[in-house]
Design a protein that fits this description.
It is a single chain. The protein has helices at about 1-10, 15-35, 40-55, 60-65, 85-110, 115-140, 160-165, 175-200, 210-225, 235-245, 250-260, 270-285, 295-310, 315-340, 350-380, 390-400, 405-415, 420-450, and strands at about 70-75, 80-85. By secondary structure, it is mainly α. The protein has a two-stranded antiparallel sheet with strand order 1-2. The radius of gyration is 25 Å and the shape is globular.
């Protein structure tokens, strides 16, 4: 009986056992890869490499044509049509900004940014890592063809940067990873504000009605106690459409929804146990499993499922539910659609192109670590922040270097900031080159500055 029950719990009744074992064995390496911290960064890098090879291959025209494929959505005569590139950059990337908004909300309420004391060091690091790169770029391009693109080297790619630190393993103290994550989140807040203020189109009042209606719906959900779920899609779409019609970048809708998502659980762990235990007892009290029909199981299972959902905060649940989609689909797809730069048409020796390339490259590779270290040092001297002795300035060197991986957010800002296709191509090429150098440099510095820790004792 026990053996038959074990088989029932491990294999669906309709499954062919040898085939299921073969499928599980084949999928195991994929699942192990997807559960590593560096997985999303590796996929991102692979997608960017594929885009570069494709855009510089004999099939380059098909690469360009693919992203200009028209995609329409609508009913009857009300049709909204844009190319595939728009839907990826302006619509799918909203989920990326949603995750950023959720991370910001969680860190502000109970994380590394919850108090002035806790946030002081990452705030200093992020401020230096934004101001100095922007200043370097503008100093080299003030009279060039794209001075307004100073925001490009300010960005840090969270997924890529965290993935690089993950490759260093136990060499890196856990507190240094927290600093990098907090720095990247503050960096993202700065990038969001820059996009909203400096890189949005001319403003129009046409989008105010849907924007205000979406905000009103979202706020009313909280007042009425309606917890996040599919019902959030309607106000999110209204906010997205309102921002688009106003002239602000519509992906900011994701940030707004993330910041307005409740951060406290309803039931919590104890509430879950209190609800789930009677429901389980109801099932067990019916005798054998055959004494309870599937229809009778629906009610107790529904109570257990609801309690399980509300045992964690909506912010945590929504972030967990969207993280895989964003990390393994949206971001790689964004890289595939935007990293394909035709290198043959770039003349980096021309005056304008040289300034852009130097500004972006030096901003990311020199400005980031210099800004992080200098402002943190100044903040420590003024008593505004404390640099932990666990990693000291060597940790700031590694964090500042890995923060030079601009990639996703830098390319996103580049799409908005550079005024011509030629300057955009140069900017993207510089972002890609600098990000690769920053990743390799951070790995090298991490290995040099943080020796391999002693192995854990047997049994410990």
């Amino acid at each position: 009986m026990l053996r038959s029950l074990t088989a029932l719990l491990t294999h669906p009744p309709e499954a062919w056992l040898p085939g299921r074992r073969l499928a599980l064995r084949a999928l195991q390496p994929v699942e192990q890869f997807l559960h590593t911290e560096a997985a999303s960064g590796i996929l991102l890098m692979a997608a960017a490499a594929l885009a570069l090879v494709w855009a510089n291959s004999p099939w380059a025209e098909s690469y360009v044509a693919l992203w200009h494929t028209p995609v329409a959505i609508g009913v009857g005569s009300a049709v909204f049509e844009r190319d595939l590139h728009f839907w990826i950059n302006e619509f799918l990337m909203t989920t990326f900004f949603l995750v950023i908004g959720l991370e910001v909300k969680r860190e502000l309420v109970g994380g590394a940014l919850a108090s002035v004391r806790a946030a002081a060091l990452p705030l200093c690091a992020a401020l230096g890592g934004m101001v100095v790169p922007a200043a370097i770029y503008y100093a080299l391009n003030a009279r060039g063809p794209a001075p307004e693109a100073w925001g490009v080297p300010m960005a840090t790619d969270i997924a890529f940067a965290v993935g690089v630190l993950a490759l260093l393993g136990r060499r890196i103290p856990a507190s240094l990873r927290v600093l990098l994550l907090a720095l990247a989140i503050v960096d993202d807040i700065g990038a969001i504000l820059i996009i909203a203020v400096f890189y949005s189109a001319g403003l129009s009042a046409a989008g105010l009605p849907p924007l205000l209606l979406g905000l009103a719906l979202l706020l009313s959900y909280g007042w009425l106690g309606l917890r996040p779920g599919w019902k959030y899609v309607v106000p999110a779409v209204l906010i997205w459409a309102g921002l688009y019609l106003i002239g602000l970048h519509p992906t900011l809708a994701g940030v707004i929804v993330g910041l307005l998502t409740p951060v406290r659980p309803w039931y919590g762990p104890l509430g879950f146990v209190k609800v789930a235990r009677p429901a389980l007892a109801e099932v067990e009290g019916r005798g054998s499993a055959d004494d309870m029909t599937e229809d009778e199981l629906v009610a107790p299972l529904g109570r257990i499922a609801f309690a399980a959902r509300e045992a964690v905060s909506p912010v945590t649940r929504l972030e967990a539910g969207t993280h895989g989609f964003v990390s393994y689909i949206v971001i790689p797809l964004f890289a595939l659609a935007n990293a394909g730069v035709a290198l043959g048409g770039i003349d980096v020796m021309s005056p304008g192109a040289a300034g852009i390339a130097a500004g972006v490259t030096l901003g990311l590779l020199v400005g980031k670590p210099l800004g992080v270290i200098a402002v943190c040092w100044l903040g420590a001297r003024l008593g505004l922040c404390h640099i932990p002795g666990e990693y000291g300035y060597r940790g700031l060197v590694v964090v500042g270097t890995v923060a030079g991986i601009g990639f996703t957010m830098a390319i996103f800002i580049a799409e908005l900031a550079f005024p011509t296709p030629e300057s955009l191509a140069v900017g993207k090429a510089a972002i890609l080159a600098a990000s690769v150098v920053a990743a390799v440099g951070a790995l090298g510095l991490g290995r040099a500055l943080f020796p391999r820790p002693a192995p854990l004792p047997a049994g410990g």
